[in-house]
Amino acid sequence: MAERNYTRQLATIISIDAVGFSRLMGIDDELAVAAFEERRDIIAGSCGAFGGRTFGDAGDSIMAEFGNPIEALRAAFDFQARIVALNAAVTENMRMQFRAGINTGDVIVREGRLYGDDVNIAARLQEFAPHDGVAISATTWHHVRDKTAAVFTDLGEFSLKNIALPVHVLIAGRGGNGPIAAASFASIPAASGHYRPITKGPPAIAVLPFQGNGSDPDVGYMADGIAEDIIYGLSNTRWLSVIAKGSSFQFRDDSLGTRLIGNALGARYIVSGTLARSDRQIRLNASLTDTSNGRLVWSQRFDRDLVDIFSLRDQIGSEIVSILDKEVDRAEQARTFQVPWESLETWQLVRRGRWHMNRRTRRDTEIALDFFDKGYREDPNSSAVLNELAWWYFWRAWLRFGDSDDLEKVETLARKALLMDSLDARPHAYLGAADIMRGLPALAAEHLAEAIHINPSFAFARSAMGSAHLLLGDAKGAISFFLDTERLSPFDLYRFHNLGELAAAYCFVEDWPAAIATAERSLNLSPGYFYARFLKIGALMRSGRCDEAARELAIFMTRHPDFSEQRIRWIPFVDPAKNNFLIGNFDLAKSAA
C-alpha cells in the first residue's frame, strides 16, 4: 500500500467568482482578462494582509485558505470594498463584480492544494452570494457571529449539489454604510441559528414587486399596482398559498436571485416582471420560476396600448392570474410523479388526479376518480377534494347529456365545499354549471355572478356565464363572456367547448364568417366535437358556401353516424325557437345533399 503524502487540518475556505466574466469576454476579451487580473491581484493582496493565501485559480474563479474564520471574513469585506471602488471608476458595462462563499471545516492538504467536501461547500456557497456580496455557512457563522461588526441574514437550509447533508446558508453584510451594507438584506429574517423546517402541504407562491424601467414614476406605480392585483387574484384561487405583499414587496432588489428569495419567504414559486413605457404603449415581461430548482416555468410578454390605466391593470392582472393558476397546477401535477403513490398527501392526490383528468380518455378519467376518492377517504372535509369530485361528476354529466344522478352529486359536493370555504369561487361555478344542464339558466347566472365576483380571473365561470346568457336568448351579451374566457385562458384544455359556444352565439347574431372561423378553431382543438362541426355546416349553408357545407356534412355523418336532432333539442334554450333555428340551418345542408 502506497504511503500517504497528505495531511488533514481545520481551515476556512473562501471561494471567489467573477460575475459576468463571459459577458465581458464577448465585448473585449483582452480588456476582460486585464480587468480580471487587476482584481485578482487585489484579492490576493487582501487575503495575504489578513493571514490567508490564494490557491487553485481556475478560469474566473479563485480559492483562498485561512486558519482563522474571522480573518477570512475581514479579508472578504476588504477586497469586496476595494473592487467596488475600482468598478465605480469604469463605465457600467465594463464593471466586473465578485461574489464569495466562505466555509469552515476539515480539509485534505496535498502539495499546497486543498480537497474535501468543505472546499466544495465553499464553492457552492458563492453561488448564493449577491454580486459584491458574501455568503457563509452556519459553521463559519458560529465562529464569527459575536466577534465582528458584520450583520448576518438567514437564507435557510439548502441541499447542495454533490453534498450529502443540507447546508445552512447566511449572507454576511458589513455593518454601517459600507458597500455591502446590511440594509440590502433587511428583508430576510435575522439569523437565529436554527435550521428552517421543510414545509409540507400545498406550495406557496410569492409575487415580487415588478420593476419599472425608466425614470417615469407613473411606470413604477403601475408596476406595483399590477403586482398587487396578481397577489389579490392568486389569493382567490384558494388552492394556492400566497405570500403577503408586506413580505414579498421587501425584495425590490433581485440581486439575491429567485432561489434565495423563495427560500427566505418559504415560497416554491416566484413571480417577477418588468414594465416599460414607450409613448402610448406599455410592455410587461412576466415570469414564473420554480425556486426548488431555479427553472423558469413560464414567461410571457404583454404589449398593450396605454389608455385607461385602471382597466389596463385589471385586464393584464387577470390574464396573468389565470395563466399562473394553470401553470403552477401543471408543474405540481408533474411533481407528484416524483413521490411514491402511497406517500402522496391529499393535495398531491388531487394534482395527480387532475393530470389524469386532463388526458380526457375513458381510462384516465377512471384513474382520476380513484385518486379523488382516495383523497376524500383521507380528508372528507378538504375543499380541494370536494371541488375536484364535483368537477368530475359534472364532466361525466356533460358527456351523458345531463345525467340527473351525476348532477345531484355535483350539487351535494359543491354545497359541502362551500361549507368548508365560502370564499371559494369554484363551488359557485359548479352549481351554476349544473343548473345550466338542468335548464335553469337564470338561477345558474346568479351562482356564476357570485363566482366571478369572488375570482374575476376564473375563466370557466366566465364561459359558463356566457352559456347562461346564450340560453336566455342574449347572444350579444354572451359573446363578451366567451371572448373574456379566450383572453383569460388562451391555452385552456377545454377551450374547444368555449369556442363552440362562441360559434353558436355568432350564429344567433347571424355573423356567419365569425361563426365559421370560430367553429374551425374549435375543431382544430377537438376534431371530434360534434357541436362545432354541426354549427359550421349550418353557417356555411347560410353563407352560400354549399360545396364546403356538403364536404363538412360528409365528415360529420362519418364521425357521428348515430346523430339525431334530439341532441340539439336537448340544449336547454329558454326559447325553443333557438333550437329550431340551429336545426334549420343544418337541415339546409341535408336537403342539398
Automatic annotation (TrEMBL):
InterPro entries with a match to the protein in the record: A/G_cyclase, Adenylyl/Guanylyl_Cyclase_3/4, Nucleotide_cyclase, TPR-like_helical_dom_sf
CDD domains membership: CHD (cd07302)
Taxonomy of the source species: Bacteria, Pseudomonadati, Pseudomonadota, Alphaproteobacteria, Hyphomicrobiales
Stated name of the protein: Adenylate/guanylate cyclase domain-containing protein
Residue ranges annotated for the Guanylate cyclase domain, each copy included: 12-126
Pfam (any one): Guanylate_cyc
SUPFAM superfamilies documented for this protein: Nucleotide cyclase, TolB, N-terminal domain, TPR-like
Entries under Gene3D superfamilies matching the protein: Nucleotide cyclase, Tetratricopeptide repeat domain, TolB, N-terminal domain
